[in-house]
Amino acid sequence: MSTTYNTTFTIGGDLRIKRMGYGAMRITGKGIWGPPADREEAIRVLKRTAELGINFIDTADSYGPDVSEELIAEALFPYADDLVIATKGGFMRSGPNQWTPNGDPKHLKEVLEGSLKRLKLERIDLYQLHRIDAKVPAEETFAFLKQAQQEGKIRHIGLSEVTVDQIKHAQEFFDVVSVQNKYSVDNRDWESVLDYTAEQGIAFIPWNPLNAGNVAALEKLQKISEKVGATVHQVALSWLLHRSENILLIPGTSSVKHLEENMATLDVQFTDDQLEELDNLSTTVKSE
Length: 288
Description:
It contains 11 helices and 11 strands. The chain has helices spanning 39-51, 67-76, 105-119, 138-150, 164-170, 191-200, 215-228, 232-243, 256-263, 272-279, 281-287, and strands at residues 8-11, 15-18, 22-23, 56-58, 84-89, 91-92, 100-101, 124-129, 154-160, 176-180, 203-204. β4, α2 and β5 form a beta-alpha-beta unit. Helix content is 41%, strand content 15%. α1 (39-51) crosses α2 (67-76) and α7 (215-228) packs across α8 (232-243). It has a single domain (8-211, 240-254), classed as Alpha-Beta Barrel (TIM Barrel). GO terms for molecular function: oxidoreductase activity. It holds the Pfam family Aldo_ket_red.
């Protein structure tokens, strides 16, 4: 059986975390807006992450907005010494499922200060630019992040939904330690970015790790999941852990049961043939 991969990764040379983390977007209301339908369950989920040994939580000021960060602090503060909380700034919210990029330094300063306050932190370990705003010169956005880092408000800086050229541009201002792009076993559009980050020792944090609308891929994943005794979602997550050692997982859920199911991904085992089939899945599906 093929199960060989490192279970930890070091972000920025000094933050050693477990590669199975938790994404805290879903502990909000419908449309990632307002409070969760079951607030007590959301708190239980967060507390369960600690019990399961998860030490990397990804959130953003725009989740709610503010709600996710507030719940994290309520459930987990004072934080465990090894817990890394990554948050993001760069989106404005006007309603459910409404997202507007804003990379203006004034906006970023305001939301960064808000994140620090809500999370009860003096410094964010990993602060990620949620989107590069086409309406604001990237140099201005990057210069602000560099300044905030120099002021000690940010430890490390990451980016989200960026090209290789955009990463290289940002690297002229600061060390980029993480990139969060849409990527999955059945959606490899950002393959070049994954390869570049692996070469650079940059963490790659995929979001939407299973493109559920891809019916052909789901059928093939279902066959493999039945053979290995796992769910389709677990197979998709496990493939990501095998795909590259710099991939960090942040599957999100508002349910303790689903959280525990996600953690069971670490028990999934593939044969070499099954892993090869998954490696070729995206190419195979597109060619049909």
